[in-house]
Write a structure and sequence with these properties.
Layout lengths: L2 H33 L4 H30 L3 H30 L9 H12 L3 H21 L3 H43 L7 H30 L8 H28 L1 H21 L10 H14 L13 H25 L6 H29 L10 H6 L8 H4 L8
Helix pairs in contact: 2-3, 2-5, 2-6, 2-7, 3-6, 5-6, 6-7, 6-8, 7-8, 8-9, 8-11, 8-12, 9-10, 11-12
Amino acid sequence: MASSDVGKVSSASLGAKIDEIGVRHSEENGKMASSLKFGFYYITCHLLSIVTYLVDHSFSCWLAYQYHVQEQETYFALTVTFIVLPALISTGISMRWYIQDVDDPTLPKAPLWRWVLRVFFLLAQFAPILRYLDSLYYGIRSIIASRKNEKEKQQYLYRRMVDEDSDASLLRLFHCFLHAAPQAILHLMILIRMAKQRQPLQAYQGWAVVCALISIAWALTSYHRSVRFARDDKEKLSWKGSTIQFCWHLMGTASRVLALAMLAAMYPAWMGTVCLCHWCVMAAWLALGHHQTAVCSSRCEELMFSGVLGLAYILAFIAPRDGPTRYTYLAYYLVCFMENTGALVVWCVGSSSVQNPSLYYGTVTMQVLTFLLGILFMLLYYRYFHPSGTSTTIRKSITITEVSDRLSKAGASGRAFSHTL
């Protein structure tokens, strides 16, 4: 073959490769553009987060008022404590983040009216709600910018929306474990104790427990969704995956809450001891394992973070960093299974099936059934709905950050955990 012919073949091959690369690049840009759209799925998730938060909070406040009217001061004091303390913690964390944002030169300065709105919502103890509203605000503006074909502005607003969503999800997560979880255990314990008596508050207490469980399950689902949406190198969680994950967390949380409530209804001190030991073991495991995340900038903050996350582990597991979680989940659910089984044994031995057989057998059946369903939904999620692998549009992080220097605000808000859920 002549050298000219070889040159033609080489040129043709090179041209074909260039065309192929161009097609791939166009496809990646198309995927990137579609993934940056703030659509119905985002809006629905934000609205569900706001509604579940408000409903859960409303039931707790209403029951606190009713306990006070009926002179049940112990229940009133516990309910108010689990309302005010988590709200103050969420407010303090949110205000600290706002102050950090002020010192960030890559972010625009907030106007006076926005600071007034922030102070109002924080004083009203609705810190996560304000974050969700800010996220909706940036998301709607990104839609407007997209329709005007302002691509750079749309990408910037989308990133701001994701940042606020990540902050709101993390705040909501801590608030649920400090507020919704204790409220669910408390009201369910009261229901079990007063099962023989007919009281007008039983219906409200039942609905309060259901709303608290839904709030916890959705907070976990929303957090996992927001982390994946904030990570440019991770595949996004679809609405089907979110639904299955919600069922997984709902069943797992219900099983755990029911086991603790059964134990608390008979031996409150035992329940407190079990939770305290579980907390200390989990916090020590996190602290000694040096599970650093973007949340922690020092060893002191890491120890505090381990304590807070260890408290959350009483009800659910949250991976503190990226990496395989199969064996960690196995160990965690094995511990929960042993603790739940111990609570069932204490319940079966300490209570009587003669006095109230429906309550006796019903609680046992529900506790076992919800635990098994939680495991089943978890297996279904990881088998069929988990967005495995890294994103095929990994260049998106480079493309977005080149739009503006302000987009260097830690892609995931710098405050969300990094894991593979």
